[in-house]
Amino acid sequence: MKRIVRNLLDHETEIIIGNLLRAGVIAAAAVVSSGGIVYLFRHGQAQMDYSVFHRQPEDLCDVSGIIKQTFAGRGRGLIQLGLLILIATPVARVVFSVFAFARQKDRLYVAATLIVLAILVYSLMGK
Amino acid sequence: MSILLFTAFIFIGSFGAGFLGSLTGLGGGIVIIPLLTVVFGVDIRYAIGASLVSVIATSSGAAAAYVKEGFSNIRIGMFLEIATTVGALVGAFLALRLSTPVIALIFGLVLIHSAYVSSRPRDESSGQVKPDKLATRLRMNGTYPARGGLVSYNVTSVPSGFGLMFVAGGISGLLGIGSGAVKVLAMDQAMRLPFKVSTATSNFMIGVTAAASAGIYLRQGYIDPGLTMPVMLGVLLGSSIGAKHLFNAETKKLRAIFGVVLFVLALEMIYTGLKGLL
């Protein structure tokens, strides 16, 4: 009986996770596309060169800079915002999993999920 | 070339890479990087950043479908993600320190290995193992839907699966790919998961793994919006269409031709890598 309840909870969790992932990808693709239109409209006729590597300007490398660029109406900022949404999608899935395992009183997996979350936060925000 | 024209070419190329990547089960990332570097002459560091982002997009899109069907084992996925995310961080740090010829060389070798793995038939006898003590304690044994109802399966060799997943995460972080071939090795061969469960669970994990290294790449300025935009949109569109033709028998010939093309691209990357080193 306990196992059946757990399986049902698991399936409910699976459906929510599925919807969460799909919504994140669609939102990201929409924001990236609109940023792309702005960018191509303004810079489409310029020349490009990706054969030599230059790091991106700082404003396109972190959350606060990207938001600043987006509000300044920059296409490249908007594209990066969409990419941030995309990167945040699996992170949101992990956050949701922490709560789902907590609701099942599954301490072992709450701990495992928190470790993964800590690694992700370090990657995005750490020094 | 103007940005507009270049973006259009990259979009079409990425569409093709996503389509073929999902048809062959190789993944879009491993196809898009040689395309960008060998065909379009893009620096491999830009290519890795763009590919990593498109890997998150395709895996999240595909995982959404798999998870709903009940093939993914979320517990196994969560547990192994500890290994893949730590590996991904290590891989990304290595990528910042290794020279581009070395990265190209490693990429060529991984590409050949992946093409070889995906061309072999998968072992379908998995899942018929005795319950393992550690896997049972971790509540990893599960069920998946089949024609006659739910089929239950057991999991074994958790430590070696965990170790291989660390390697898979490292390769993913270093090269900007999903590294499905190593994940198959860990879950099919070591942990003996049924292949539908391992495919779905691996897909589920790729997004989180790639997000771990994507954060590092973004903050280090490797992710160029102008290039990543057509790559991400093209690969996403191509792979979602490719997934619909996955079990079409007519794709066999296409796969064979594609295998040859990939092999040539891999050799080219190894050659460039060696030339850069000498």
What report would you give on this structure?
The complex is a heterodimer of chains A (127) and B (278). Chain A is an all-alpha fold and 127 residues long. Chain A has one domain (2-44, 56-125). Chain A is 78% helix and 0% strand. Chain A has four helices and no strands. Chain A has helices at 2-43, 63-71, 75-103, 107-125. The longest helix of chain A is centred in the N-terminal third of the chain and has 42 residues, at 2-43. With 278 residues, chain B is mostly helical. Chain B has one domain (3-277). Chain B has eleven helices and two strands, in the order ααααααββααααα. Chain B has helices at 3-24, 28-39, 44-69, 74-97, 100-119, 133-137, 158-175, 180-190, 195-219, 225-244, 251-277, and strands at residues 142-146, 149-153. Chain B has a two-stranded antiparallel sheet with strand order 1-2. In chain B, helix 4 (74-97) crosses helix 7 (158-175) and helix 7 crosses helix 9. The longest helix of chain B is centred in the C-terminal third of the chain and has 27 residues, at 251-277. Chains A and B meet through helix 1, helix 3 and helix 4 of A and helix 1, helix 3, helix 4, helix 9 and helix 10 of B.
